[in-house]
Amino acid sequence: MAQATCKGRRAFLQDLALGAAALVASGPIAILAASRSRNWPNVATGNKGPDYAFVVDVGKCIGCGYCVEACDTENKVPKGSVRTWVERYVVTKHGVHIDAIDNDGKGLEPLPAGLAENAEWAAFIPKLCNHCENAPCVQVCPVGATFNAPGGFVLIDPKHCIGCGYCIQACPYGVRFFDQEKRIANKCTWCYHRVSKGLQPACVTVCPTGARQFGDRSDPASPVAQVYRSDNWHTLKPEMHTDSRVMYLGLPREVI
Amino acid sequence: MLPNGALNNFYFPNEAYIEWSLMIVIYPYITGLVAGSFVVSSLSHVFKVQEFKSVARFALIAAFCFGLFAGVPLLVHLGQPQRAFNIFFTPHTSSAMSIFGYVYSSYMILLMVEIWLVYRPFFIEKAGSTRGVQRFLWKALTLGVAETNPAALRIDQKLINLLAGIGIPWAFLLHGYVGFIFGSVKANPWWATPLQPLIFLMSAVVSGIAMLMVMYSVFRWRARLPYDMRMMRRLMDYLWGFLILDVVLEGLEVVYMFYEHGSHWAVVEPLLSGPLFGSYVIGQLLILSGLPLLLLGYVVLFQVSDRWFLRLANLASLGVVLQVLFMRFNVVMGGQLISKSGRGYTDFHFEWFAKEGVVTALIILAAPFVTYYVLSRVLPIFDDAAPATSGTRT
Fold it and tell me: The pTM is what?
């Protein structure tokens, strides 16, 4: 009886140890499984990971400015600078009137008298970092603090940037700015901190009309991949050959 | 007038702040003076222009004084100056700017070695004729090398000529590189031209020659020493020649844009007729290029008395010195005034007491002259003038 009890206890302890080992081992396995399901880059398997891109559907933008506000809140953008903004184009026979929703919180001013009546067309154009594959800012950074990260992001290492401002000069889109508080270059990251947790960029989340979409070009189910395949999109300043990852749908010819 | 059919002046929200300040204006200005002064000393050492022998040392010391402060504006401008050495430790070689640390430091080393070789006999002599702390300092400057026999001096001279020879392409690299930094920015229509490195080089040479002329005249006048008229007339021959090249290149850039009538001209034309009209068209082009070209042409081509030569040549040289400063301003600021929206221009306001303001710029610009003054008190810069402390002629 005593032997049996002893055996039972040993078996129990063995089971316990096995169970504990399984539990300990399952953690990383579960994480690995989860990461595989999220398609993270993996050097061992040669998986390059997701291939993110951004879609701006000009026809859907209503100029509400929520995206600018959300970006400001999410990323604590210094006053006087923007990581994203929305331009308003009003085009008449005589020329182009442009203004923009930036993060001064004032929104757009009323149009000059008579402009709206003479408008041939008008549109809102959201702008943000194009996360170029062939990014001039990455090329010119003298210390390699700006880099192409896996997934298609162009990021800045805040601990390595020397604040020379060359990247700001090199960016054809004016999306970079000198952060007066941190004394380094700053710009839109497509909310890398959110995307790496499986979330969407803040501006995409708050857009009420779906004018801003973000997703994986290599995931056939992603709307972004569908836009990419349609080949019906344009980029800003294609003559700069930056291989922008922001695809515009319905981009008017006048937009620079 | 606004470009591309703009009805209102529109620039991107981030462009309201001009990122490259006055510091970036005076940085190429000072490096240009380095390169230009060095060319004059090398004309004597390498190209055997006899007339410049008497100012070879002067030009070298001037180059050194400017060189010492060439990097200061950059350091003041950096957002994170304590990380400046990242450019040495982790240079990102796809960027033209990444070579700055290596080019600048190697050039300064070359300059210092050349100066040491030139002044080595003087250091040894001083170490022998002084006492106490002074003797110790002069001795330290000899670096423990005491040979001054003819064979040793001959080797010195060969090395000086060699360094002067290597120094020419190096000085050109130091400054052509600055032009490349601007000329290769495809996003900026006012900067992006392969002519930019050449323009910067030529303007460097003229600014160096003109600055030497003015400095030489002032110091000789203050020391009540005779002027070397042959040297000065030859110097003005060179200045005129290089200035013609410089102005032609600067003109070509704009004439090309104008004639091509492409996308660049669309935004450059309103820039030149608007915000840059005063500093570029009137200042840099009409007055500060036109007047020196005419004056130099006159003193070079016609018989002019020494007295009038001194006046006219110095007036022309002052003009050239200012022309190049205006040119740096017009390039650096002009490029940043053009909005990348293609439909407007930003604004630049001089700030006097800001970190990168006018006062800081003036202090940095004055520093090389103060350094030169101090050095001229301890080193014999001209053959016919001992260091001012001794008060005697040799």
Answer: 0.90
